[in-house]
């Protein structure tokens, strides 16, 4: 049954002005950004997401008529530390693709088609070598898919939706929540901050942490971790970046909702291929803010 939100919660977020709205729940959220890709996302996660999108594309355009809707991808990369002490992609160690398929297709054809029509168009050749490992449908059979196959739909996969394990994760899922829930809106703001800091050259990568208490508008804490990659631009040190963030971003939940225009009907696009690193016009948290 669908019922109204508990009045105990509602009274903590209702306000006369959206700017004064309290957080809809207590939460810790994180945002991450780095210089590995043009979209300021970790390359391993970016490639995995693009492989998933490519799986859908070759199914929909008829390139591979044996593919069915369910699927999953995973990319493991090797990194080296550059002269600034920043992890830099070196090569793809392994690629795992599980694709739901028609009954009659052979495993050999699945492997060959996925390599030729999914992997090669997505993964830059310079990251692939003769030691790259490919696991194409490693279970050996994937005819039955979706909830009929595995009904573990307890919520969106938060690591897939965010940064593929890079940075940190607060624990609350993003999808299925309105913007009063800082699990979602706060995570968008944290990504907005992290991307803006890296794009502006204050650091080579960073993780932004915001903490909220239910019913309170101002965040309890703001923290920036650059993993030692702070460039000291404009005299800003790693210790002072959090203060800079607080002067440039209004992190009250209502102001995040207003600034990022989160009450528009835009969330359907976040249901697949992640919430971050996508140049969608509606995703204002991906628009770099000048700092």
Give keywords:
27% helix, 7 helices, alpha+beta, 291 residues, 3-stranded mixed beta sheet, 3-stranded antiparallel beta sheet
Question: What this model shows, in words?
Answer:
The protein is α+β, with helices and mostly antiparallel strands. The protein is built from 7 helices and 6 strands. The strands form 2 sheets. It has a 3-stranded antiparallel β-sheet with strand order 1-5-6. A hairpin with an 8-residue loop joins strand 5 and strand 6. Helix 2 crosses helix 3. The longest helix has 18 residues. It is globular. 37% of the residues are buried. The model has no long low-confidence stretch (mean pLDDT 92).
Shape: globular
Mean pLDDT: 92
Strand order of the largest sheet: 1-5-6
Helical percentage: 25-40%
The N- and C-terminal alpha carbons lie at a distance of: 47 Å
How many beta strands in the DSSP annotation? 6
Order of helices and strands: HEHEEHEHHEEHH
Structural class computed from helices and strand pairing: alpha+beta
Portion of residues in beta strands equals 15-25%
Rg from alpha-carbon coordinates: 21 Å
Let me know the largest β-sheet.
Answer: 3 strands, antiparallel
State the helix count: 7
| Low-pLDDT segments | none
Chart the SSEs and their pairings.
Layout (H helix, E strand, L loop, with lengths): L6 H7 L13 E8 L8 H18 L6 E15 L5 E15 L5 H16 L10 E4 L21 H4 L20 H18 L5 E8 L8 E5 L15 H8 L4 H7 L32
Parallel strand pairs: 3-4
Antiparallel strand pairs: 1-5, 2-3, 5-6
Helix pairs in contact: 2-3
């Amino acid at each position: 049954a669908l019922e109204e939100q508990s009045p105990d919660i509602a009274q903590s977020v209702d306000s006369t002005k959206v700017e004064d709205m309290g957080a809809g729940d207590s939460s810790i959220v994180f945002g991450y950004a780095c210089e590995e890709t043009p979209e300021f996302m970790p390359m391993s996660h970016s490639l995995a997401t693009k492989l998933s999108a490519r799986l859908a594309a070759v199914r929909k355009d008829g390139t591979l008529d044996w593919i069915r809707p369910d699927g999953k991808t995973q990319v493991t990369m090797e990194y080296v530390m550059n002269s600034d002490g920043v992890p830099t992609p070196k090569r793809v160690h392994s690629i795992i693709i599980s694709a739901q398929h028609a009954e009659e297709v052979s495993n050999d054809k699945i492997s060959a088609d996925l390599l030729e029509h999914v992997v090669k168009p997505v993964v830059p050749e310079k990251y692939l070598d003769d030691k790259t490992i490919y696991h194409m449908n490693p279970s050996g059979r994937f005819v039955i898919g979706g909830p009929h196959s595995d009904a573990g739909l307890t919520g969106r996969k938060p690591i897939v939706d965010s940064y593929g394990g890079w940075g940190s994760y607060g624990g609350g899922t993003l999808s299925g929540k309105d913007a009063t829930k800082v699990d979602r809106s706060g995570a968008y703001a944290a990504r907005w901050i992290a991307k803006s800091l890296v794009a502006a050259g204050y650091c080579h990568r960073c993780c932004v942490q915001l903490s909220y208490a239910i019913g309170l508008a101002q965040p309890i804490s703001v923290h920036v971790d650059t993993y030692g990659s702070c460039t000291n631009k404009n005299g800003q040190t790693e210790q002072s970046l959090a203060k800079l963030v607080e002067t440039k971003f209004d992190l009250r939940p209502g102001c995040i909702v207003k600034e990022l225009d989160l009450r528009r009907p835009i969330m359907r696009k976040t249901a697949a291929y992640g919430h971050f690193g996508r140049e969608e016009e509606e995703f204002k948290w991906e628009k770099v803010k000048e700092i």
